[in-house]
Amino acid sequence: MNSVVDLILNHRSIRSFTPEPIKGEQLDAILASAQAASSSSFLQANSIIRVTEPELRERLAEYAGQQAYVADAAEFLVFCADYRRHLAVAPDAMTGFTEQLLIGAIDGALMAQNALLAAESMGLGGVYIGGLRNHPDKVVEALSLPVGVFPLFGLCLGHPAQIPERKPRLPRALVVHENHYPAEVDSTLLAAYDDTMHSYYQGRSSNQKSVTWSGQIRAILGKEARPFMLAALQRQGFLLK
Question: InterPro entries annotated for this entry (predicted)?
Fold first, then answer.
């Protein structure tokens, strides 16, 4: 349709990078693009920590589940929900509300998507790192994050050393609904998608496996999902009310 749509539809996560650094002007454009994202009520309730110290990168890679590309990528950015600035401007500000965490998380995701799209437009690639939330307290300590700031996820950026296959998404009819949510999930469409994903996983060029999307979902949602997260958020001043 146009180059922007083509770029978006060509997205794939990159987990292997060449040693080539990202140029300063490229990083400036990526960060400017991140800051250009929409901001709820113009709160601008986010910060980005650019991690450049090799030892710190290694620690974060470990905390994220031994994801080596956190240490190897040309750039690693940590996107945070941040109300520290707001408390500096207004010491009596009412913070700790659930809505404020939602704003920080949503706006942080918008910033990160802008950043990755900008990077991809330059021929760079990247992958988001939600694994930082495996050890939120350790990440908070490692990055010296004060109360009012919480690490949401990371973003590796660099020059791709791989071109992985694009992962098929759910059929649109299972995702986009008109006016009302359907009474039932279309089992026929879901079964067809499971077949598609099974073929994709078995036929891709690396990390082949025999699994369906439904099987993955049962495995992921059949266990606890970081049950320590509420306490970690509350220690940083979030989800108090």
Answer: Flavin_OxRdtase_Frp, Nitroreductase, Nitroreductase-like
